[in-house]
Amino acid sequence: MLLLRDIIVHVSEHFQVAIPSLLFGQKGITTIVGPSGSGKTTILKIIAGLRPIDSGRILLFDKEIHKMKPGEREIGFVFQDLALFPHMTVEENIGFGLLSKELSKGQRQERVSNLIALVGLTHVKKKLPGTLSGGEQQRVAIARALAPLPKLLLLDEPFSAIDQPLRVQIRGEIQQLAQEIGIPIILVTHDQEEATAISQHLVYFDEGELIEEGRPEDLYLHPRKVRTAKFFTDNVLIPTESGEIYCFKPWELRIEESAKGRGKWKVVGSLFYRGKYLISVNSLDDDKSLQVESESRLTDGTLLNIKIPLESGWKIPLS
Amino acid sequence: MAPGNAITFVKRASVLGIIIVLFHPIILFVIRAGGLDLTDILISSAFWKALWFTLYQATLSLLLSLLIGLPGALWLSQYRGKLKPYIHAFLTIFLMLPVIFVILGFISLFGEESLINKFIFLISGEKLHILYSFPAILIAHIFYNVPLVIKIVSRAWEETGKTEEQAALLLGASRLKIFTSITLPKLLPPTIAVSLIVFAFCYMSFAIPLILGGSPSFSTLEVLIYEKARLELNLKFAMGLALLELLVSLLFFWTCTRFIHKYTFIPSHPSKVVARSKVSVSFKIYLFFISLFLILPFITLIAETILGLSSTGSILKTTLIHPLSVSLLVALSSGIVATSLGLLSSLLIRNLPEERMYDLIFFIPMGISSLFLGICYLISYQKFILHGWGIMVLIVLHSAINFPFAYRIIRGSIVKLSPQIWQAAEHFAPKWGIRLRYVTFPLLKTSVINAFLITMALSLGEFNATMMVAGGRLKTIPIIIYELLGSYRLESALFIGLVYTLIAFFIFYFVERRGSYVTPS
């Protein structure tokens, strides 16, 4: 339904965003993920029309939209800092996008009331945004984006300004909303955990280039590019002498209990993480370093051997 | 031309148009001054004497203002009491107080027949002879500048924080080393910045040396320019002087700006300073005297006015009606023009690649003396003034003087808002009319009203440039006050001055108390 074709945007003298072809699905949540400064937000802004493209085409449901003004594209946008109008109440903020539509006052009010109820803000509808909590502000921004009945909803780093417990709640709310409203959602984040948790489709971006896309579990467990594998920080990459690279998760590497106290790997740190210990080790033979999982904390300097079962690792195809 | 490029072109052309409309007399002046022979001026002793005196009094005023103001700034940066917003509001008044009223305050305080002088005479049999002397100029400059030093430096010091000092302490540095290598470099840039402003004010001082100096030997360059242009009608000489004054000030500010850039230190993590719990007795005495020094001219102005009320009535009726209507017309019109152009420029330059450059361009007129702008307008529009169009020239001149203030107030409120607010407005409302009605105007309403009130108040009190253009029947209230002082009708001058000061006071208090919207985080 949303197609980006031969897109080139010169962001600065030394940085450009280039997308030969990228198709977003009809339903569900697609997440554009990548490190900071990779060009993710630029993609969102060119889709919304907030940034011009230097060349290429953007089609939304087969309609060319790249020459249209932002307000004419039928796309909802939730800004990173929310950009709520500070002088308008919650209901005025939500209704702002309807002022340009040919609707009667009653129709406008009805739609605003429905959205306020949908996002659970009835008790604060007459308040100014500055008096609301972070989560409430987030919901106002989402409701405002949905009011003009967009065909697509874009969310720019929706969790960046929210603390951890609220993040999980908002994540759940967005997933529920995606099902209720039935329009596709594209969101941008630099957080790998959020990206894999919330989305049905993942697009990995780095240095202005589209690196890889697919289901979150595929990109996480079976990346086809080394750059994607490196982005998920818990991956252990082991190059072989033949030049191939194997990708492991820490729990796939095993400490040989019988070789504890002697061996080719030296413990340099232990970290308690989600009920287990992540042990960092350095090779005595070369400059390799790995992370393995352990049931107990190991003292720094302990020597041990690690079993690397190449047969269970994921071999990244040579490109 | 692509639509985006065409819009950018129209925006740039419009901004250039605004600059030309307001400041074209400067361009015309520079063109004409290019052919001037400056030899006559450079060999005249009057020029060198005035230049020397200008630099001397400005340097001395600056040093004394810093000496008196910096301890106050240190105290205010650490004070966390309930009175703090009121102190800031009080100090703000001084930044905008019309110079003619400061002069009236001093005359009511130190005049031969003032209450204080009568009291001193009763006790000692002697009177203070401060007015119409060099100390009078210095005291008036200090009175004007100490609040500026306290306000600006205390705000900057508040922001510097103590994190770097604490880090240095933990790394084992001595107190002296910390002060010289960390604290001093942090405190220096705001102090230098305020010093530049104070020096500029004193360098371009006109009304204070003209009225409170009272002697040709206390003539600054600005006074000399006025005398040559309006009293001796030697416009060529005045133009040459204005050019030289401009060159000296540009050279000075260019050197200082380079110095500031070289030594500016930005703390990595700005934080609030730790509040002091106790104030020493010596500091309390200092605060008492500084407060007395700043408040006393206002009190004596009120007291002297009330005491002289009986003899003001008849003069007011005959002399006030015309200048009051001129003042109000010029202030209202120039307030509207300056605010409208300030708003328009702020909106036009938004999102232009050279957006920040315009901040600098529109800052330049604030560094040019209003008297200089006055002489530029006088030269360009002499014939118009002679043919009775002086009031129109005065309106444009006041608009040009006050435009940078209006621009900075409105631009400041735009910069404070998140840029995404404007993007959101554009995204949700394709029609610009809706964006203007529901977002732009409501968000900028407060700053536009503030800009209008402040430019109007500044216009009401404008003296320097008005002295160049006004004359004959074209007189404003400050000019009338000056003339009343010249004809020794002090009571009437004080009464008008007090009414004006009260108007200015309420305008600035109203502006200071008004809040503005801040983007929710």
Which band does the percent of strand residues of chain A land in?
A: 25-35%
As residue ranges, the low-confidence spans of chain B are 265-275, 516-521
**How many distinct folded domains of chain A?**
2
In what range is the share of β-strand residues of chain B? under 5%
Helix content of chain A: 10-25%
Q: What can be said about the biggest beta sheet of chain A?
A: 6 strands, mixed
- As an assembly, this protein is heterodimer
Report the count of strand segments of chain A.
19
Q: Strand sequence of the main sheet of chain A, in spatial order?
A: 6-7-8-3-9-10
Element order of chain B: H for helix, E for strand: HHHHHHHHHHHHHHHHHHHHHHH
Plain-language structure description:
The complex is a heterodimer of chains A (319) and B (521). Chain A is an alpha+beta fold and 319 residues long. Chain A has 2 domains: 2-227, 3-Layer(aba) Sandwich (Rossmann fold); 234-316, OB fold (Dihydrolipoamide Acetyltransferase, E2P). Helices cover 25% and strands 31% of the residues of chain A. In chain A, the strands form 5 sheets. Chain A has a 6-stranded mixed beta sheet with strand order 6-7-8-3-9-10, with helices on both faces. Chain A has a 4-stranded antiparallel beta sheet with strand order 2-1-4-5, with helices on one face. In chain A, strand 15 (276-283) and strand 16 form a beta hairpin. In chain A, helix 3 packs across helix 4. Chain A is elongated. The two termini of chain A are 29 Å apart. Chain B has helices spanning 3-33, 39-42, 45-78, 84-96, 99-110, 115-124, 134-160, 163-170, 175-203, 207-213, 221-231, 235-263, 281-307, 313-349, 355-361, 364-367, 370-380, 382-416, 419-428, 432-461, 464-469, 477-486, 490-513. Chain B has a single domain, classed as MetI-like fold (Orthogonal Bundle), CATH 1.10.3720. The relative contact order of chain B is 0.12. With 521 residues, chain B is mainly alpha-helical. The two termini of chain B are 39 Å apart. Chains A and B meet through loops of A and helix 19 and helix 20 of B.
